[in-house]
Structures are given as C-alpha cells and as structure tokens.
C-alpha cells in the first residue's frame, strides 16, 4: 500500500476583490464567512497541513483566523498579483512537503471529499500536476508536486500558476469529480447573489 503523501493546502485569500468592491473574504455565508468555509473544508480533508495567505485588509481578516489549526501568512505584495501569494505560500511550507494543493479563498462550496479525491489521485499516480475536471472542464483546487516548486517560485504578475499547465502538459493528470463548485468562485456581486440563492 502506498503511504499517504505529505500534501499541504495553501488557501490563496490575499486579493483585493476589486470587482466586487468589498472584502469578499469576510462576506457572510452559512453563519460564518466565505473564507472560514474554505478553511473548514480544507481542515476537514486529508491535507497534512493548511496555510492561509492573506493580504488585502489583513487587519480585518487575520483576527478571524486566530485559534484555528492553520498557518497564516501575510503577503505584503498582494497588489502585485496572485503569483506573490503563491510564492508566500511556498515559503511557508514545512520541510518534507511532497506537494501543495492551491485552493481559492473565494470557493466556499468545494467539499472535503473533492479535495480527498485529488489527493488520492496524486497518491496513486505521483503526477506533477493534478487538476479536477467537471463536465470535461478544468477547475480548482489544483495540486502541484515538489518537482514544480522551482518553477512556481519564478512566477510573476496575476496569472497564477497557469503557465505551468503548458510547460508540464505531458505530466498532468485530470481527475473527474462530481462537484460543479470547482468552477464557481466569488468575483462579483452577481456571483455572491447566486451563492446565497443556492442555499435558499
């Protein structure tokens, strides 16, 4: 039997939410905030550890995270793009980390079972990148193995880790999941309205 790999979840929650005009990490949902929902799913999964990268209005967000079983990192360069939150998360990884699962701080519906399916696919395949797919469309969260860390550290701007998809195209595993929420994040007021209505 293969040993469970050491995978750390890094929740990217440092953005300004410019399109929604509010601190979206703090928007209420299910009796807590959107970010708290993401964190709770991550902690409830088989991830070895959870790192949360915050940035914009860290003064408001950080107090909400006190006392949780997570590592909090403040990205001071959050205005420079998501790549800086990715690099801040990488710097916080403990020694011996086999892979990182990048999660979006505005995807509160992704279930622990979906996270675990990605982790199991990595355990069985040891692919460099593991991407969940629903209805033949890729989504988030995405897993990157240690072999890609050196390239993640060279990213710049607000493109995220997408440049690596082409570079490592031959070593990507797509994992079918029954979870359409891998395509749903909160960027606009309309997105938030749809999220709230989904619970009614």
Can you characterise this structure?
The chain is an alpha/beta fold. The protein has one domain: Alpha-Beta Complex (Spore Coat Polysaccharide Biosynthesis Protein SpsA, Chain A), CATH 3.90.550. The chain has helices spanning 34-44, 58-65, 82-91, 112-125, 149-152, 163-167, 189-197, and strands at 7-13, 28-29, 32-33, 49-54, 71-74, 99-104, 129-134, 137-138, 142-145, 172-176. Strands 1, 4, 5, 6, 7, 8, 9 and 10 form an 8-stranded mixed sheet that branches. The protein has a two-stranded antiparallel sheet with strand order 2-3. Strand 2 (28-29) and strand 3 (32-33) form a beta hairpin. The longest helix is centred in the middle third of the chain and has 14 residues, at 112-125. The chain is globular, with a radius of gyration of 16 Å. 38% of the residues are buried. The model has no long low-confidence stretch (mean pLDDT 94).
């Amino acid at each position: 039997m293969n040993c469970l790999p050491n995978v750390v979840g890094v929740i990217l929650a440092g953005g300004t939410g410019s399109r929604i005009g509010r601190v979206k990490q703090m928007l209420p949902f299910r009796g807590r905030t959107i970010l708290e929902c993401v964190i709770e799913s991550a902690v409830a999964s088989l991830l070895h550890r959870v790192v949360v990268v915050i940035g914009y209005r860290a003064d408001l967000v950080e107090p909400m995270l006190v006392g949780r079983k997570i590592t909090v990192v403040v990205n001071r360069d959050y205005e420079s793009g998501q790549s800086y939150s990715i690099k801040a998360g990488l710097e916080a990884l403990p020694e011996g980390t086999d892979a990182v699962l990048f999660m979006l701080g505005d995807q509160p519906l992704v279930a622990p079972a979906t996270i675990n399916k990605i982790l199991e696919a990595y355990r069985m395949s040891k692919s460099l990148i593991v991407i969940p797919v629903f209805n033949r469309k890729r989504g988030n969260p995405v897993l990157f193995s240690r072999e890609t860390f050196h390239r993640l550290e060279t990213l710049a701007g607000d493109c995220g880790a997408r440049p690596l998809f082409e570079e490592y195209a031959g070593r990507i595993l797509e994992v079918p999941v029954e979870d359409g929420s891998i395509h749903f994040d909160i960027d606009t007021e309309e997105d938030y309205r749809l999220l709230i209505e989904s619970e009614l």
